[in-house]
Amino acid sequence: MFKNIFSFKIFGSNLGIDLGTTNTIIYAEDEGIVLDAPSVLAISQNDGRIMGIGKEAKEMVGKTPKNILAVRPLQDGVIADFDIAQKMVKYFISQVQPHRPLIGPQMVIGVPSQATEVERKAVVDIAAGVGARKVHLIAESVAAVIGADLPLSEPSGNIIVDIGGGSSETAVISLNGVVISHCIRIAGDEMDRAIIQYLREAHNLFIGEQMAERIKITIGDLSSDKEEKMKVRGRDSATGFPHEMEVNSKEIGEVLFPPVSTICDMIETTLEETPPELSGDIMQRGIYLTGGGACIKGLDAYISKRIHLLVNMVAQPLLSVALGTGKLLKDQKLLSAVEATLPAD
After folding, report:
1. Which pLDDT score is estimated for 196?
2. Domain ranges, residue 116
3. Could you report the per-residue pLDDT of 29-44, keeping only the tens digit for each?
């Protein structure tokens, strides 16, 4: 009993982290997912004081006075504001480990396969700054494969498509490594911007990011199934007054087609560059979808029709990267193998 108490005070729990543009998800060894929070921080421009982090800060987006700024420190899948990102991560770590240990945790963090050396170093520096004793970076696509319990170490190919908030990535995985990968800055945020632009141009209605995201999640649908409707509130551009109108899933689906089509172009490019020996495996197994953006209704069927391959949604698309980093905490041999798969800049 005394040994366990002593160990708890000395050593921090090892952590797996999916540091995403939209959400940050943390997996603690032997505990599972312990945090899933929006990657947003609200800060006072007068004195730099933190006014809110995570869900609280997200609710402030578009509603703050001029002296308070709600910031998303990650853009397009990478760190855009180092200082704010470090403050945010430090706060999240304090939530899952209230008492800072004498010896910090080991951290496994997912990063885009094509992250530059500078972008990877920023992640390492933030982790070190919040007390990590050792930091391992692995490709998010590899982490997603592990988190989804797909074959990784076999000499066979799996193609995974991760559609996040700021970026979409497709990668062919075989023998613990990334064989081919492509990443574009078209994902959930771009879909939100398309909805905002459409309502402004077609209906003279100004809406914010949160309303656009709500529309996408609620009635965004790429299928031709039953039509759904939703009431949307915003500001009428003609009168300047608050206005409410109704939109339907069919028109929102049409708005989403252009960004989704660009994602399909990326998938096709990846397939064209895939070695023929792995193409047969992919034809048999199909494509695996993960990430928050993959949850749009009818997306799997649309991609399948466009690419002419079976499309499978992984069991927990929002958590697969974090679950993968968590599993690697318990398998140091596999961690060493996949960590080396990140390309040098």
Report:
1. 97
2. 12-39+74-143+321-339
3. 989 999 999 999 999 9
